Each structure stands twice: as C-alpha cells, then as structure tokens.
Amino acid sequence: MELKDILGCMEGDTFREKCQSLCGCLRDLDSRYDWVGIYWVKGAELILGPWSGRQATEHKKIPISEGICGAAVREGKTIIVDDVQKDPRYLACFLETRSEIVVPIRKNGKVIGEIDIDGKEVGAYNDDDRKLLESLADFIATEWPGRW
Ligand code: SME
After folding, report:
1. pTM to 2 decimal places
2. Is residue 136 part of a domain?
C-alpha cells in the first residue's frame, strides 16, 4: 500500500470528515490495521478524535504522561511496540490487541496529534508501516485548519 492508495480512498469535504474517512480507509486497505484512531493534543491531554474499529475504546482522554500514546508525544517520534503485553507503558483497550504503532502528527515542529493503530498479531508493524503512516501524518498536518 502507498500513500496514494490511502488518499484515493479518502472521502469528505471537511477536515473532520477526511480524517474520519482515513481511519476507515486504513482498516479497509490492510487487515493488520485492526483499530485505527486519531488523538489530538489539547493541553496536557490527548483527546480521541475520529476512529474506526469494531469497538469503542474507554481511553477517550489520555494524559500525555501516560501510555504508549503519551510516550509518542513526549518523544516526538513514532513508537512501534511488537508485544504490548511486554511493554509497561501500555494502556489496554482491547483484549485481542497484541501490537501497536503510534505516529505523531507534527505541524511546524510541534506535535498536534497522532495516529494510533492496534493489531491482533505480535510484531504486526514494521518500518514500511512507519514510513507510510508518517507520510500520512504529514498529509494530515498539511490539511489541519489550525483548530478543532
Ligand atoms: N494503547 C494505547 C491507548 C489507546 S488504545 O490503544 C486505543 C496506549 O498505551 O497509550
């Protein structure tokens, strides 16, 4: 899969609609992307925005001091966790989740949000996923209207 495939699938007119559509497109295009969500940074918290998956998560707000999601913001870089059961930072959402990738969305050097993806297999994500999702995060940052 390439960025153009994801963008080719995207629908919607507004930024919000496009982000919602992108979450669904990622799941439709690759079955390893089991749950896909976008969190936005608001103050010291991450707030869940659009998402696509079989179940809703209880983690609609995550302090930046917590979780793999928080760590990705603090470190300002993509985090791939091959086995969430072995990572003490992990905040559990779904019983079947075994691996996770979290990709910061950066605008003018500042992390404004992140793409969070959960998978059902150990080691589901690799460097190709990182590159693809980082290019998608750049696209989202470009489209960002400057406020929610
Ligand atoms: N697992 C994440 C929390 C978000 S859920 O995966 C949707 C974390 O450890 O930060």
Report:
1. 0.97
2. yes
pLDDT per residue as tens digits for the range 77-115: 999 999 999 999 999 999 999 999 999 999 999 999 999
Nearest CA to ligand 1 atom 3: 91
Backbone phi, then psi, for 50, in 5-degree steps? -70, 150
Give yes or no for residue 73 CB within 6 A of ligand 1.
Answer: no
Cβ-based burial of 14 (10 A; exposed 0-12, middle 13-18, buried ≥19): exposed
Is the shortest distance between the CB of 91 and ligand 1 below 6 Å? yes
* Domain at 113, CATH number: 3.30.450.40
Phi, psi of 120 (to 5 degrees): -90, -10
Kindly tell me if the per-residue pLDDT of 127 is higher than 70. yes
| Residue 27 belongs to some domain of the structure | yes
Taking 80 as the threshold, does the pLDDT of residue 54 lie above it?
yes
- Does 148 map to a domain? no
67 CA from centroid of ligand 1 (Å): 6
